[in-house]
Amino acid sequence: MPDFSKRGTTPELMDHEEVPFEEHRAVLRQLTRANELSLAYRPTLAFFRRLKREGRLPKDRPLVVIDAASGYGDMSRKIDRWAQKNGVEARFLGVDMNPLAARAAAEATPPGRPITWLTANLFDFRADFEVDIVMSSLFTHHLPGPELVGFIRWMEETARIGWIVNDLKRHPLPYYFLKAAFFATRQHRFMRHDGPVSVANAFRRGDWQGLLAEAGLSPGAASIEAWTPFRLCVTRVTDATS
């Protein structure tokens, strides 16, 4: 039984084990389905709705969004559809270090949408254009503390308007639920292993408070908010105006 009082350190299979493209794509599709069932898109959609409501989005040019560790690209496509429906002109750049993810994301993206997929190490990536928002989903629990602090600093340097981290809350209930559910539904072995491990490697509020302070953010500069079921999201809105 994991010690839920602190973040786990067990590696996830998908981070280290190479599989053929078709198998990798199948796992990404299963993960997307799990995101849909767990209402995973709500916090990120709420963040964009808030920015629009507060008048923080650009009025004379497209909004520029980086999707950090974009995976299958479902979050970018979800926000792109929201932007279309709400009269927001937006451009998306999905950055993922796995070329199979970029290929799968490109195949799943309707033709003509303003979304570009780039294979790159996020920590080596420096945009040569103005970036408004950085968003990530189910990425930060993959990072050990020092790398996560570096990622927070990178978002601070990169995003003009703000950033959002959409991730999991560490708790025994989702850990054992995913362990049982993914086994019972015969999910891919990556899902059966990595799902519970993701929860054990995830966060509680105190973790984020310490990480934000270590990254140099003052208390209250970022908001830490729990979402049902078992999501813990961090948002930061700068003082920049559109």
Percent range for β-strand residues: 15-25%
Helix-residue proportion: 40-55%
- For the CA atoms, what is the radius of gyration? 17 Å
Shape: globular
Query: Which homologous superfamily in CATH is the superfamily?
Result: Vaccinia Virus protein VP39
Using the coordinates above, name the CATH class. Alpha Beta
Spans where pLDDT lies below 50 across 5 or more residues: none
**Number of helices in the DSSP assignment:** 9
Overview of the structural elements:
- The chain has a single domain, classed as Vaccinia Virus protein VP39 (Rossmann fold), CATH 3.40.50.
- 39% of the residues are buried.
- The protein is of the alpha/beta class and 242 residues long.
- The chain has helices at 13-16, 21-37, 42-53, 74-85, 99-108, 145-158, 172-184, 189-200, 205-214, and strands at residues 63-68, 90-96, 115-119, 131-137, 159-168, 222-227, 231-237.
- Helix 7 (172-184) runs antiparallel to helix 8 (189-200).
- The mean pLDDT is 96.
- Strands 3-2-1-4-5-7-6 form a seven-stranded mixed beta sheet, with helices on both faces.
